Structure formats: C-alpha cells, structure tokens
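Quick start: what a row looks like.
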Amino acid sequence: MTFISRLRFSATALLVIASCSAIAATITGTVTNKTVNKPSGGDDVVLIAFGQGMQEAGRTKTDANGRYSIDVPDNGMHLIRVDHQKAAYFQPVQPGTTTVNVDVYDVLPKVEGVTTEADVMRIETDQQGLHVIENYFVKNDSNPPKTQFSPRAYEIYLPPDARIEGSAAMGPGGMPVSSSPVPTGEKGYYAFVFPVRPGETRFQVSYHLPYNGNFSFAPKVSLPTQNVAVMLPKSMQFAGTGSVAFQPINDGTTAAQTFLARNVSPSQVMAFTISGTGSMPREQQGQGDQSGSEASAANDTRPGGGLGNPIDTPDPLNKYKWWILSGLALILAVAAAFLLRSKPETAPAAAPVAKATPTMAPAAGQGDLLATLKEELFTLETERLEGKLSEAEYAEQKTALEMVLKRALSRQSVLS
C-alpha cells in the first residue's frame, strides 16, 4: 500500500470513527436509594428511545455501588427508566448528556405518613345536571421517605351515581398526566394506581350527577384529611346534615362560597345537601397570579376575608386558592393535550376547558415536557404490566404520545 493510499485509508477510518462517535455515546450514572441513602444495586436500567417510537433501546443493571453504564445509539431524545421494587422512576436524557443520576425509594403498599391535606369539591350546574370537579392534595411525609404504590395506591369515594368524565394525577414537581381511577368492586369506591412519592401528589376527578334541583352528598375520606372543602356558586344553597360540622368561609372577592370541615377521619360521617342552580366564576388567572392572590388573602384582615382568616392557624387551602378557583379543570386539559387517553365520547365535555389551558402556566419548555412525559410513561407502563391495556391499546397510546411529543418539539425548535 502506497503512502497516499495509506493516508486515504487513515483519513477514511478517522471519518468513520468520528461519525460513530457523533452517533453513539455512553451514559453513566448512579442510582441512589433515598430511603436508606445508599446506592441501589441490582436495579434494572432501561434506555427508552423516541426516534422510531417509544422503544427500548438498551438495558442493563446497576452494580453493587448503584452504578450503571449504557450505550445511546443516536443523538435523539431518550429517557432512563429505573425499575426499583416494581416501581419505575424516570429521568430525561438531553442530547449530549453523559451522566444521568436517578433517585429511587423503597416501595410499600401502605406508608406511614401519607395523609390527605385537602379534599376540595367544586360544584355547579350545567345542561347535563350537577357538575363536580374533586381535587385531592396528598402529602407523603414518610420518614425515612418511601413511595406508596399498589393496585390501591390512593383510594377515593364518589357518589354511587357519579359518571366520571375525566381524571388526572400529578406527582411531586411534575406536570398533570392522565390517570384513571379503577373501580374496586364496591359502587362508588375507586383507587388510583399511581405512585404516591415523598412530597405532594395531586389527584383530580371530574364527574356529573343526575340533578333535579337538590342533591344529598355523603362523602367519605380514605385517609385522615386536614381539610374537606365544598365550593359552589353563591346562587346555590348548602346545608350540612351529618355529624361533621362545615364552617362557611366566604370570600367577598368572588362569586363563590366555601364550606370547610377540618381534621376529618375516615370513621366520621359527613353529609350535606345542595340545592339551586348556578355556575362558578371563571377567573382568568394563572400561575403568575398565585403569589398576588396569596398575598392579598394574607393581608386581608376583614372578618371572614380570605380562606384562612376564620381559622386561628394558617389554612392550607389558602395556598391553593388561585388553583381551586380558576384552574381546577385545567389539569384535565393539560393531561389530554399530552396524551389523548380519554374515551371518545368524553371529548366534547372536555373541549370548553381546553380554551383556558394557557392560563395555567407559561408555555412548557423541553424540561416541563419531559417531566410530564416521565409521569405519563409511568402510568402507561403500569397499566400495561397490570394487564389493564391490551397490546393494541398500549401501542395506540404510545403512538399518540410520540406524535404529540414530536409536534411539541417541532414547535419549540421553530420558536427558538
């Protein structure tokens, strides 16, 4: 081989190597069990690729020191999924990233320190009858921190005649994702198969009830609940009929009225009747207005002014006030925007909500999108593993998620 030939061969080899280096990379990281603050060995680590669909692109296990190394075949977007004690934890992999560390927690079906901070019912009437959006703010203050996860990770009670139209869940620091409560066999008794991780998890259910001018509620709580709140238009009437006392907490700045019960246990009997008709105010305020509304409520010293003033201690509902009044239904729209997993017949009911979606928060960037995606992936994979989805349903939903992801990324690249 002549010198020129060798030179050409060497140049070609270098180009091939450089090309391969640009395409392939290696991600390393450490998986830490935050329950014991030690490396988590023996966990499955899966690389999920989006280039040709959400497919598994690699798999390995953590060593005794919790470390792993996995090859990334291309420069596209990926996720690292770590399976720890049958629960999945996700971290996004940005293009060019070489290190991804993942925190996991030990999993138990029931965890000490999980309580409901607030159960908030927003009630109004419409052409279909009585419309209720119920929100649950769940705290996991377990120490050491653990994840509560099982087929009955969080249980709820709804009126037996409730017709569920939409539902969503949001993990700590995440974004709303579609998550459906599963019937347990007892009418009106459901369970979310969604991890209750350390921190705050939110659940929401939207449903309709038949209505002829009055309706009697007999709500139950599955966990000790600090606050049970009922919100309805001022044109409607509320009458407590159970042993649990509801205190009226009216806010003069809105056309809504609130009735609050404190420190409710699962053994207590709650009951109330509502009557009349009316619609809740549609306040156009989003995340950016949160601090303002909180500050005004905190500074309001009028009798009955603000959600927290009638109570001696600060009312946890006050920090959710902006979200409860103007954003309750928005979580459903956000979930639907990222993955249309609702039944086709429920789509018309959700359509009016979509118009308000931009008021919930500023436009999501890539990080927010991936945070949403990892939560949605958890739900999707969980439902598949539990046999709640056929392979056809799984493939359809995965394709929908991929399509929405590509459109969002395309839109983001145009804006940038």
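That is the whole record. Residues 114-359 form a domain with the Immunoglobulin-like fold (CATH 2.60.40). The two ends are 50 Å apart (CA to CA).
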